[in-house]
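It would be a great kindness if you could assist me with a short task in structural biology. The matter concerns a single protein, recorded as an amino acid sequence and a row of backbone structure tokens. The record follows directly beneath this note:
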Amino acid sequence: MAALGRWRAPVLVVAGVLSVLTGGSGMSPNPPDPVPPAPIESLPKAFTAVSAQPPMRPAQPQPLYVPPPPSVEPLPPIPLSIGIPVAPPVTPTVPSVAPSATLYFPSAPGASSAGEHKLPALPFPPPADVSLPSPTKPTAPQPPAEPEITEPVATVHRFTGTYLGGNDRRHIVYAETGDGRAEVQSRPSARSIPKADADDKDDVTRIAIPTGKVARHDRFAFVTAARELIAIDSNGDIEWRFTLPGKPDNGERLLDVAGFHDGQVFVVSQQVIHDKGNTLGQLYALKTDTGSLVSLTTIKARFDPDARLILDRPNGALFAFSRARIVAHALPPSQADHTCEVPTLPIAHASVTNATVCTMTPTGLIIIHFQPIHSNVLHARPSTQIGGVAGTAPAAIRSNYSQSGARIYAPVKSAVSHFVLAAFDEHHATPAWQVRVPKAITAAPVLYGSCVYFVAGNVLYRVNADTGAVCWKHTIPLAPSETLTDLAFTRGEIRASGPGVLVRVTDRPEPAAAFPSAAANPASRMGVPHPPDPSP
């Protein structure tokens, strides 16, 4: 029994294993005790919720292996005409020298340098200067440069009569109406506007006056009638009248205005004393602005009816130019006046400045120098005669031009029929320079600053007074029958006039930097010199 008890445990183990392997054949174990059913309240909430809801379709099982997508061939490179492909980021290498101004973009990822596309060169901006600038003095901004002035601006006015002067708004015209009467007209300087109503009156003021000789100076125009001198201002109004003293039948008549000096106008009269057969000349000095008498000088001489009277200066001489002679009457009067006989000459072609007389003759140019001796007697120094030329207009004289004397600017016609403005020195018969023009010079030249202005035909010239270089020329639209016979520089513009026509010429303003000192050279406002005129 002892031996059986020792082998009982292994035998039971073997028997249990065999029972499992044989499917329960053999000895069957005792069945387990039944488990009593648990109440529904004791079940988990999850199961309770599932049992309360309708049945759900079970989820499809997910495969444990997902095959990779099929491989895709790389796209071909995009042409440059369509666009620039986006390149992957590339870390550039820093070269030892400045980078080239050329960018390279690969056509596709992994492309070699042979497949790269070269784009147009792009400029790199220069490196910024980080250094501090040195302190400098601020400079004023310079005005923009204007184009070079080659032509002035001209305005042409036409009327019936003789131009007497005016201002920027109106000009004064003298016109004879017949029967010994005339009128002074004040006309607007602006271009006329057509009237809306034909019956409207024009903007012209008219003042009736007696006929006479006309002259102008500064802002006044003067009309010399038989026994009165009438001063007219720039607005066309009569400023004052001077009437000869004495009875109207005393034989005294006004001849002409002889000149202007120091705010005075000098007018000459001649009186014939019938009972004595004597002739006396009177020189009246009147204040220009009021007409009051300043002085009266008696000259015991007879003036030729056609004489042109020019007063050189109050204490110099009164010159009377006639057809064949020049008479210099000393002031104050002396016992003997000096008479110079000259060939026949147009009396309008005579000029006087500081006792230097320049006369134009049909055969030449004569320059006579008068100087006082014994304080009131005039004598003539040896004259300069230039032959082979004929004067076409009075000359302009610049006194004290140099140590050698004055300079004469004479409009002449040469022996070979060339029209010339010639500059002669006082003691030389050959011109210092000359400017040839295609037509005759019909008005006396005008000196202003360092320039000479003259008109030839319908062309106005400005030349340098020292060299004769042409600064500019301007063609004036004149009718074939119109002629310019007078030239003057007034209020910053050249005014050329003739019978029935007035031309106002002015330049545009010059840049301030071109002429820093306009006061030193008044002509600097009138343009810039140019090469000489190539006209024949």
Q: What stands out?
A: Confidence is low (pLDDT under 50) at residues 46-51, 99-115, 509-536. The chain is about 5% helix and 40% strand.
